[in-house]
Amino acid sequence: MAKPIKRIGVLTSGGDCAGLNAVIRAVAYRAIRTYGWEVFGIVDGTMGLMNRPLQYRTLDLHFFTGNHLREGGTMLGTTNKGDPFNFPMPDGSKKDRSQDFVEGVKLLGLDALVVIGGDGSMNIVSRLCAAGNIGMVGVPKTIDNDVHCTDTSVGFSTAANVVTEALDRLQPTAASHHRVMILEVMGRDAGHIALNAGISGGADVVLVPEVPYSLEGVADKIKEVLHGEGRSHALVVVAEGCKTADGETPTISYAGGQKRYGGIGHYLTEHIADLTGAETRVTILGHVQRGGTPSMHDRLLASAFGVHAVDLVAQRKFGKMVAWRDRGVVEVPLDAVTIGPRSLDPNGTLMHTARGLGIYCGDFERLDDDAVSPDECGSATPVDPNLAGPEKI
């Protein structure tokens, strides 16, 4: 007979986003109020279990205030650096610290983990849990919305709202000064934010990593708007992961030699001005997209995911991730999720919508037929809520 579940941990890993605290709150409420379990919040992702002493917080009902549902970021902290299987040490060497993680779970007496993360952190933590035979259930979060097998992830709605609001604010100043405004947004591997917000914010050009483009194509669209349609301004949205027209990847260097995606907005500004003669300005939103009060949709999604993740733990359905499909929460296998980022479908509904509105989204005749892999997730099973309750575990 399996050991009864009495104590679980919850952690956030990877980049922060709005809605993480709502997931943590939902996990704690469901685990404590329905199942009578103890819940521990692991501080700073996997580091909280790798560090000695362990870093964690006891999440009881007295811990939560009315503010947590409304707060951005993560109350537990997070990390997106340092692969535990190849961890950088102070002397410059690399060390496999996976067993430190496994030992930390055992020292805290956890019977299972709920892991809130994107595709990268899901991959790493699922491997850590497999190394220690630790039960894990995943909850998808990322502003990029690039996790496989789920229609949407926690944090995406709020980020897209921020970008849409930015376009709403840029449009009046663009119109007042007869300018082309370029907005560079996050999206390292996928253009979901750029496309969703570009449509919602009335952009004339939307450039995403999945579709090649030409500077002439961008310029022709802007000339059409400014001269053919008689409008005094234009709006351009570009994902940070877009390459230049020559296929180069713009990066920005930081202190310590680190390089990050960025610079595509400035590149476009210079070339659009040369090709069109229009006065051009660029705005880079950056981490503004990660912060702020979670949207209603992200709060609902986070709450549903947190409750159903705990139900999967109760049912001992480990190695699963909760996902949003067909207007409800389903369970999908983690090995279908941890295969890299989910790209935007160039032939999907939203791209068809954008092109139908006359938005220039790239040169589709240059797109390879197999440029984007289909999102094949196998069977998605609805999480059974009727098994809830400690007497039914």
TrEMBL record:
Record flagged with keyword Nuclease: no
Description of how the protein assembles with itself and partners: Homodimer or homotetramer.
Family: Belongs to the phosphofructokinase type A (PFKA) family. Mixed-substrate PFK group III subfamily.
One GO BP annotation of this record: canonical glycolysis
Domain of life: Bacteria
Reported function: Catalyzes the phosphorylation of D-fructose 6-phosphate to fructose 1,6-bisphosphate by ATP, the first committing step of glycolysis.
Gene: pfkA
Cofactor names: Mg(2+)
Name of the molecule in the record: ATP-dependent 6-phosphofructokinase
Entry EC no(s): 2.7.1.11
Gene3D superfamilies from the UniProt entry: 3.40.50.450, Phosphofructokinase domain
Site for Important for substrate specificity, residues: 120
Chain sites annotated for binding ATP: 15, 81-82, 118-121
Chief place of localization: cytoplasm
Reactions this protein catalyses: beta-D-fructose 6-phosphate + ATP = beta-D-fructose 1,6-bisphosphate + ADP + H(+)
Record-listed substrate binding positions: 142-144, 179, 186-188, 240, 281, 287-290
Region annotation (Disordered) ranges: 372-393
GO CC annotation terms, alphabetical: 6-phosphofructokinase complex
Active-site residues from the entry: 144
Residues that coordinate or bind Mg(2+): 119
Lineage: Bacteria, Pseudomonadati, Pseudomonadota, Alphaproteobacteria, Rhodospirillales
